[in-house]
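Morning F.,

Quick status update on the modeling queue. The single chain you submitted on Monday has been processed. Sequence for confirmation:
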Amino acid sequence: MTTNEAVAGTQAIRTTTPPRWANIGMWVLQALLALTYLFSGVNKVGGEAQTVAGFDAIGWGDWFRVLIGVLELAGAVALMIPILSGLAALAFTGLMIGAVIMTIAVYGDLALAVIPATVGILVAIVAWGRRHRTTQLWALLTSRRS
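Structure tokens below.
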């Protein structure tokens, strides 16, 4: 493992990067998740019939479907940008928690919630595995430039 330091104000933040094999595995998982969110986002923004029906069942209108689709498309790109990958995965974890809750609330069927729950677990693994990237991003955003 290697250690990196990022300076946030006057405080040094140490982060540990994963071993090479874990980094490669994480990139593969990120790419698969990015493709999943890309496909899902295109379906939402494009108004695919089954997706429209699912969001109609929620009752929040087309604006919500399009918003989620745009967020998925942006997040899919962010998953593949090293400094943004951890934050994107963290945001997707929250999105998938919401998807599981909404699926159960709207359809009342735990079996339908398996897919968003599984994707949520996988994206949470990426969020944890890329936490050093999130720490680096935080340090960059909060550091004071003189």
